[in-house]
Amino acid sequence: MAPDDVRVDPDWRVAGERIETLLDASSAGGTVARERAEALVREVVDLYGAGLERIVALVDPRTLDALASDELVASLLLVNGLHPHDVSTRVRTALDSVRPYLGSHGGDVDLLDISPDGVVHLRLTGSCKTCPSSSVTLELAVKDAVLAAAPETTEIVVVADEPASSPNLISADSLLSRVHSAPLPAAAPMHGTWIGVPELADLMPGEVGGFAVGALPMLVCRIDDELFAYRDRCPSCTESLAGAVLARRAGGAVGDAVLRCPICGAHYDIRGAGRSLDDPTEHLDPLPVLIRDGVLSVAVPVTEVAG
């Protein structure tokens, strides 16, 4: 089987939590049982770490780079201090991985600097800096990618771009303050999670499909080779967008894609992060779509994961 065909169980991302749960369960046998379980885990980790260090010493730099490009292998290299790339290179690579999604919505992200104490300073540009859902995009796509690639970073800060020229535009700083001040359920470990939806690949160019992920109904559009996912709700009439189709606006360029609400007739720019063409204060709610562990996945707010 070729390396590109290897599928890894995405549950490896929460392996640490499962190990901790098993250690907690061992505590039922008393303090000695817990200490023995922890010692066993350390022995296994040290053994595999020593083996991984030997592998790293034996392979050539190009092979090591290829190994480090795999998320699971990269995480093991990081845990054992064997990753071949410094934090700046890893952060830039992580940002490159989400640029196709940001670019599909007319936006981008710039790495400004990484402070000695591990604070990453970013700047959202284009549509991302004014999109009413860029807070979700930042939390579920950009920050997730950076923290996965460089877990030693201590904080990710979005630096304000030049002031917006329109009073209707909302700054990234304002959006982020809303995200971080919003209360989350007590059991919620983060602002959202990635859920594999491989059936998105079945959409044909120009097709609009409805999907349900957990408790979240969403609308997904394919334009050429790009997928665009939005919450299935028209902000103008608050109704479902079921039955909506893509069309080119009058005088629009090739590739121009407008979604028309079948209920109220409101028009939304699919490539432009779902901005309304009728009311500049209204916006569809975009959801990041990326390939994770080889599977098309959608970032879903944590409050809507359970259905």
List the helices and strands and how they pair.
Layout (H helix, E strand, L loop, with lengths): L14 H12 L4 H28 L2 H8 L2 H9 L7 H18 L2 E8 L4 E8 L7 H16 L5 E4 L13 H10 L10 E5 L11 E6 L2 E8 L2 E6 L14 E2 L10 E3 L6 E3 L5 E2 L9 E2 L1 E4 L2 E7 L6
Parallel strand pairs: 2-3
Antiparallel strand pairs: 1-2, 4-14, 5-6, 6-7, 7-12, 8-9, 9-10, 10-11, 13-14
Helix pairs in contact: 1-2, 5-6, 6-7
Biggest pleated sheet: 4 strands, antiparallel
Determine the oligomeric state from the structure. single chain
Overall structural domain count: 3
The N- to C-terminal Cα distance equals 36 Å
Helix content: 25-40%
Provide the structure class: alpha+beta
CATH superfamily of the largest domain, by name, is: Rieske [2Fe-2S] iron-sulphur domain
CATH architecture grouping of the largest domain? 3-layer Sandwich
Shape: elongated
Number-wise, the strands total 14
Radius of gyration: 22 Å
Please, what is the average pLDDT? 76
Number of helices: 7
Give me the CATH fold name of the largest domain. Rieske Iron-sulfur Protein
CATH class categorisation of the largest domain: Mainly Beta
**Beta fraction of the residues?**
15-25%
Low-confidence stretches: 1-8, 163-191
Question: Major sheet: order of its strands?
Answer: 5-6-7-12
